[in-house]
Write a structure and sequence with these properties.
Strand content: over 45%
Number of strands: 6
CATH class: Mainly Beta
Oligomer: single chain
CATH architecture: Single Sheet
Structural class: mainly beta
Radius of gyration: 14 Å
Largest sheet: 4 strands, antiparallel
Shape: globular
Order of helices and strands: EEEEEEH
Number of domains: 1
Number of helices: 1
Length: 87
């Protein structure tokens, strides 16, 4: 599987780390909201589009308000969550 491309600060293309089952990603947004996503699987649909199925937990401060499974295509997932966090 090829890793999705992204641009660095100078506009040069760089490869992201491949999205793998079990990897954990974290995204921080405004108002102290933290999304933590754990990859459950990476598969192709009937049209050949690669998707990531993941479990997401969204908290604001210490209060969780979303705890569910979701699915995004690989490119959208990589754009939203970036690089995996260190184990």
């Amino acid at each position: 599987m090829l890793a999705p491309l992204r641009l660095d600060i100078l506009g040069r293309r760089q490869r992201r780390a491949p999205i793998t089952e079990g990897a954990v990603y974290r995204r921080r947004s405004g108002n102290d909201v933290i999304e933590t996503a754990r990859v459950l699987s990476v598969d192709h649909d009937l049209q050949g589009i690669q998707h990531v199925r993941f479990h997401v937990n969204i908290c604001r401060g210490d209060v969780p308000f979303v705890d569910e499974e979701r699915m995004l295509n690989v490119h959208s997932f990589a754009e939203r969550y970036g690089q995996p966090i260190e184990a």
